[in-house]
Amino acid sequence: MIYPIVAYGDNILRAEAEDYPQDAKDLTPLVESMFETMYKANGVGLAAPQIGMGHRIFVIDSTQMGDENHEGVKRAFINPIILDEYGDEWSFEEGCLSIPDVHGDIIRPEKLTIKYFDELWNEHEEEFDDLTARVIQHEYDHLDGVLFTDYIKGLKKQMLRAKLVNISKGKVDVKYRMKFPLKK
C-alpha cells in the first residue's frame, strides 16, 4: 500500500513519536508499505510520521546513494535509540519528501552507533558512517519532531519561509501523493 506523504505544516511532523508496541501484528506489512511509499516518491528514507503515524519507525535504502566507496544498506529501524554520534562533522545538502523542492546544507557528525529492532523484533546495535549515517540521522530526527530545515539559520532560513508556507498550503508540484494540513 502506498501512503500519501505528509506535507510540511502538519502537526504530526512536530510531535515526538511513541515506541511501536511489540505485540502489534501489522509490522511486516507496514514496513513493506513504507519501503514501497519511499520508492514511489524516489526517496532514500521515510519515517512513520511522514505517513501520518506517530510511531518510532523508519526505513532507509542508502544503496542508491554515493559512489563505489559507499556500500549502503536497506533496513527498517523500529524503536531506535542513537547511542552516540561522533567523528568529524561534515556538511551535505539534504532534502525531505515532506518538504519538496527545498534543500539545505546540514552539518552532522560522520558516524553513529544505534540500537534498534528489525521488523522481526531482532535487536541490533550497529555503527554506521558516511551517507548511511546521515540518512539515519535525518530520519531519526523525524521521530523527535525535528526537520532538517530546523538546522538552517539566518538569512537562508528567511529565504525559505515563502516556500515552506506554500508547501503547507498545498502549492507544490510533486510526482507523488501528498497529504496537506487541513485548511482552517
Automatic annotation (TrEMBL):
Its cofactor is Fe(2+). The active site is at E139. The keyword Hydrolase applies. Binds 1 Fe(2+) ion. One of its GO terms (molecular function) is peptide deformylase activity. Its EC number is 3.5.1.88. SUPFAM superfamilies: Peptide deformylase. It comes from the Bacteria. Signal peptide: none annotated. Gene3D superfamilies: Peptide deformylase (3.90.45.10). Fe cation binds at C96, H138, H142. GO terms for biological process: translation. InterPro entries: Peptide_deformylase, Peptide_deformylase_sf. It catalyses: N-terminal N-formyl-L-methionyl-[peptide] + H2O = N-terminal L-methionyl-[peptide] + formate. Belongs to the polypeptide deformylase family. Removes the formyl group from the N-terminal Met of newly synthesized proteins. Requires at least a dipeptide for an efficient rate of reaction. N-terminal L-methionine is a prerequisite for activity but the enzyme has broad specificity at other positions. This is Peptide deformylase.
